[in-house]
Write a structure and sequence with these properties.
Order of helices and strands: HHHHHHHHHHHHHHHHHHHHHHHHHHHH
Helix content: over 70%
Structural class: mainly alpha
Number of strands: 0
Distance between the termini: 62 Å
Largest sheet: none
Radius of gyration: 34 Å
Shape: flat
Number of helices: 28
Strand content: under 5%
């Protein structure tokens, strides 16, 4: 990204009200605020903002954050019982952007991009409504055409049967047929026009979605660039020691929440990490969650790598939930790659983040798209316990076999351990078919690859269940094919794990399967070395 131009406004100028754009914004906000009929101090307490900050915003000495402006609109709507008109909101937002442009070009460019992203998302929503409306209209017209076509067919039959009776009847039926044909032709033209409009609406939606994706990428890029600039995150803030003293005083007061939010958003990253170590567990979790929602992604990754977060399951959960709310599944999977190389507790955070990405997907294809770019990075770097279990729970109703095939395709065979473990049948329970129906429909090469992977990577408990499924029950139509695969399974398991056959035989509750494994074992050479 090109270097962002610096504006002419300076902090001192803004504090003195010397920048006309900031002063104009303050006048507008004051006019809106006066409609509430409350004092500035009361309003500050209501929205949990320091009253000196409210005073500076309304006096035109500081540019308020967009959240302050949006909260003011909300309070006015609640007070008046009606929403503030959109053109008023747009005018105030533009005034704020004009003020930012001359006082803080960095923030101006970022907020402009965010505003454009919001507009793009609204346009995508409106286009979606238009598509639904056009689709309903198209279906209605098509039903009308079908009804008219049926009427015409019946009229033609009536006409052919009765046209010999009277000339008047013939003329009337002829007119009805012509009128019906004309109406049908008109409906067909309307349907063609609706189809054209629907196609254009779909193209508009695609363009809006693509524009939104580009804007999100630019916003993330700009956040990362601004995060790397010295001093961007710490404007006019008290020293860390003062913040700690203030938090100690406010510990039982609601003001502590406001101070934690300010620290998470504006203080240098080093201060945030120091506060995570200093604060009690509950407050530290709140600070981590706020940082995950507000700070640039590189800062959030650094917070995750900090021992005070990586060693705490509660802080990990707060961090992952905050980051997952901001990023798509694929973005979350890629962003958290830095955690995979951390020591054991940290790499567990990468696994949990990847599991969160899986849970945010709605289809196996979407999960594959999220996992594919990071499979090589994670493979061998962390144990995919949570990721495998998330995949099994998310897609077990679709097909556990398809999920196993995806793990092999990545290739990430470690996932198979946790995919199958989640769905294991308790000892002595009845084995339900999970793999065999779909497995026997695969081509022989893929079928063999799945069987070998399961033999090498599933637990003995899951292996017993799978072996029982391959062995089958009396009356199974494809029992013979399953038993051929059982031999492949036993060979692969014995090659991958010493004593596999013996452990499998000792832990199965089925006498028939135990005898089948024993018969297979007797066919092996005595010296297997």
């Amino acid at each position: 990204m090109t270097e962002i131009a610096r504006g002419r406004g300076r902090t001192g100028d803004v504090e003195l009200g010397a920048v006309p754009e900031v002063a104009a914004l303050g006048n507008t906000l004051t006019d809106l605020f006066n409609g509430l009929g409350v004092t500035q101090a009361a309003y500050a307490a209501r929205i949990h903002v320091d009253k000196s900050a409210v005073s500076r915003y309304l006096a035109g000495r500081r540019v308020p954050p967009q959240a302050f402006v949006d909260q003011l609109f909300t309070e006015i709507s609640r007070h008046l019982g009606t929403s503030v008109q959109e053109h008023v909101k747009d005018a105030v937002r533009q005034q704020r952007l004009d003020a930012l442009r001359v006082t803080n070009p960095d923030a101006y460019e970022l907020d402009s991009l965010r505003a454009e992203l919001d507009r793009s998302q609204r346009e995508t929503y409106r286009t979606g409504l238009l598509i639904e409306s056009l689709t309903d209209a198209l279906e209605k017209k098509q039903r009308q055409v079908e009804d008219l076509t049926g009427d015409l067919t019946r009229q033609q039959i009536d006409w052919a049967a009765e046209r010999r009776e009277t000339a008047g009847r013939y003329v009337r039926l002829r007119e009805e047929q012509e009128a019906g044909a004309t109406a049908r032709d008109q409906l067909l033209r309307q349907i063609e026009e609706l189809r054209s409009q629907l196609a254009e609406a779909l193209r508009q939606r695609d363009r809006a979605e693509e524009h939104g994706r580009q804007l999100r990428a630019r916003v993330l890029s700009l956040e990362e660039e601004l995060a790397g600039r010295q001093g961007y995150d710490a404007p006019d803030l008290p020293a860390l020691e003062e913040v700690q003293e203030l938090l100690g005083e406010l510990w039982r007061d609601a003001g502590v929440v406001r101070e934690l939010v300010t620290a998470a958003h504006a203080r240098p990253l080093a201060d945030v990490l120091a506060l995570v170590d200093w604060l009690p567990a509950t407050a530290a979790g709140q600070l981590v969650a706020d940082a995950a929602r507000m700070r640039p992604v590189p800062d959030v990754l650094a917070v995750g790598a900090h021992p005070g977060v990586a060693d705490s399951a509660k802080n990990q959960t707060a961090l992952i939930e905050g980051l997952a709310a901001r990023l798509s599944p694929a973005e979350l999977a890629r962003a958290c790659g830095a955690w995979a190389a951390l020591p054991e507790d940290g790499s567990r955070l990468a696994d949990r983040a990847l599991a969160a990405a899986v849970r945010a997907t709605s289809s196996l294809d979407e999960a594959r798209q999220a996992l594919s770019p990071v499979a090589e990075l994670y493979r061998g770097a962390c144990t995919p316990r949570a990721t495998g279990r998330a995949l099994a729970v998310q897609f077990r109703k679709t097909s556990l076999l398809d999920t196993v095939l995806m793990a092999l395709e990545l290739p990430w065979p470690e996932l198979i351990t946790w995919l199958t473990e989640v769905d294991a049948t308790p000892y002595g329970g009845r084995t339900e078919p999970r793999f065999l129906p779909g497995l026997l429909d695969l081509d022989p090469e893929a079928r063999t690859a799945v069987v070998r992977a399961l033999a090498a990577h599933t637990s003995i408990r899951s292996s017993v269940q799978f072996a029982q499924e391959l062995y089958g029950e009396p009356g199974d139509e494809r029992r013979a094919e399953g038993r051929v695969l059982l031999e492949v399974f036993l060979e692969a398991g014995e090659a991958a794990r010493e004593g596999f056959e013996g452990r499998l035989r000792s832990q199965t509750h089925s006498t028939h399967l135990r005898n089948a494994v024993a018969r297979w074992s007797r066919t092996l050479p005595v010296d297997r070395s």
